[in-house]
Amino acid sequence: MALYRKKPVVVEAFKYMPGMEDGFQQMYDSQMCAECRNIYRGCEYNRPYINTSEGRICISQGDYIVVHSNGDQYVIKSDIFEKDYEPI
């Protein structure tokens, strides 16, 4: 079996702060957020989201928005981002 190393990729990224979202999605009883897989029960929430090529993705303060070279953007949780990426 051969071994492979992932090629280094340079991406533009920034930490999400309120005001960067594309909108808010109302979450109701037992509705599941597609990104975080959390089920909210008992009340209504307004979750911020960004639009991606895969649809709306909920985002939380501190998450990173990564912009690929083709312009697609996606969300990475801060602990995963900080483990996998380093500033250049």
Concise synopsis of the structure shown:
A three-stranded antiparallel beta sheet has the order 1-7-8. It has a three-stranded antiparallel beta sheet with strand order 2-5-6, with no helix packed on it. By secondary structure, the protein is mainly beta. The chain has one helix and eight strands.
What's the layout of helices and strands?
Layout: E1 12-15, E2 23-27, E3 31-32, E4 39-40, E5 45-52, E6 55-58, E7 64-67, E8 73-76, H1 78-84
Antiparallel strand pairs: 1-7, 2-5, 3-4, 5-6, 7-8
Give structural notes.
With 88 residues, the chain is mainly β. It has one domain (12-84). It has 1 helix and 8 strands. The chain has one helix at 78-84; strands spanning 12-15, 23-27, 31-32, 39-40, 45-52, 55-58, 64-67, 73-76. The strands form 3 sheets. A 3-stranded antiparallel β-sheet has the order 1-7-8. Strands 2-5-6 form a 3-stranded antiparallel β-sheet, with no helix packed on it. Strands 3-4 form a two-stranded antiparallel ribbon. The longest helix has 7 residues, at 78-84. The protein starts with 11 loop residues before the first strand and ends with a helix. 9% of the residues are buried.
